[in-house]
Prior knowledge:
The protein has helices at residues 16-29, 53-60, 64-68, 77-87, 92-96, 105-117, 133-140, 159-173, 194-206, 252-255, 272-287, 295-306, and strands at 42-44, 98-103, 123-127, 144-148, 176-181, 212-217, 244-250, 263-268, 319-321. By secondary structure, the protein is an alpha/beta fold. The protein has one domain: Aspartate Aminotransferase, domain 2 (3-Layer(aba) Sandwich), CATH 3.40.640.10. The longest helix has 16 residues, at 272-287. The chain is globular and about 50 Å long.
Amino acid sequence: MNHLIPARQGRPDKDVIFALNGEATKRRAAGESIINGTIGSLMNDDGSLSILDTVTRTLKEVPRGEWAAYAPIPGTPDFLEAVLADTFSTQPQLKAAATAVATPGGTGALRHALMNYLEAGQALLTPSFYWGPYQTLCDEHERKLDTFNMFAADGALDVAALDAKLTAQLASQGRVLLFLNDPCNNPTGYSMTRAEWQAVVKTLLAHADRPVTLLVDMAYWLYAGAGDVRGFLAELTPLLGKVGLLFAWSGSKSYTHYGLRVGALIACEPDATVRGQTQAALAYACRGTWSNCVRGGLWAVTRLLTTPRCARPAMPSATRSSSCCRTG
C-alpha cells in the first residue's frame, strides 16, 4: 500500500536538468564530444568548473565557530545589510524601504514569494520563456503557473500580452505575483531595456488598485554584460508603496560556489508598519521551512561584499558560461 497522499504519488523520480547533466557527463566520460547546455555554472574551456580564487580563500578564513553555530533565523544582520547595501548602492530610496531574509540560494527566495504572496490554488505569472523549476516550485507548493507571451513581433518584450494577463488574473483570482527573471533571462539570456522596464512599470501601476507584486529574479544580473547592471533599478522606484516589490538575490552565480546555497529575499515596503509585518512573515516562513541558513556561508559572502579587496568578484577572462538552466 502506498501511504503517500495522492497528490504526491505521481512525482517524477529525477529533476530533468540534473538528469540531463548526468547523461552529458556520462557520455563525455565515454569519449563522446559533448556540449553540456544543462547546468547553469561558469565553466572553463576544458569543461571544469571555473572557481573564483578570492572566494575559495575567503571560505578558508571562516572561523570554525561561524561554521558550527546556528545563524539567526532571518540571517545574520551583517549579511542582510551587506546584501541591501550592494544591491541598492545606487538607489538609496529602494534601500531605505528594504528588508530581507537569508534563504538557501535564490530558489529559497522564490519559494517564500510563492507562499507569502499567493493563496493556495492561485497562479504565478511569468513570461513564456521561464526557468523550468518555476513549475516545480508551484507544483510542490500547491500553486499554478500561468504565462504571457514574452516577445512581440519586433523582438521586444510583449507588454501588451503582460497587460492582458494582468487583467485576466486580477479578474479570476484577485491578486497577481509576477516573476521577471532579468537581467539575463533564464533561459534566453535576454536583458530588458530601460524603456521596456518603464513600460512594465507603467502597466503594473495601471493595475495597482488590486494586490499586484513584482519579483525580480536577479540570479544572473552580474552576467548582463558591460554597463551599469543596477541601472534598471531606477525605473522601479515609482512602484514603492503601490505595487509589491521583491528581489530574489543569489550568491551562487556571482561567487561560483553553487553548493554553498547563499541567497536572500528582499522586500521593499516604504511603510514602516507594513515593512515590519513583511519581515515577520518572511522570518516565520524561514523557521517553518529550513529553520536557518549556513552561518559560515553567510559570513564568507558578507566579507566578500564588504571587504574592498574582494568586494566585487571579477569574472575570469578565459571562461564561458553554460546554458542559463540554473540548478538551484
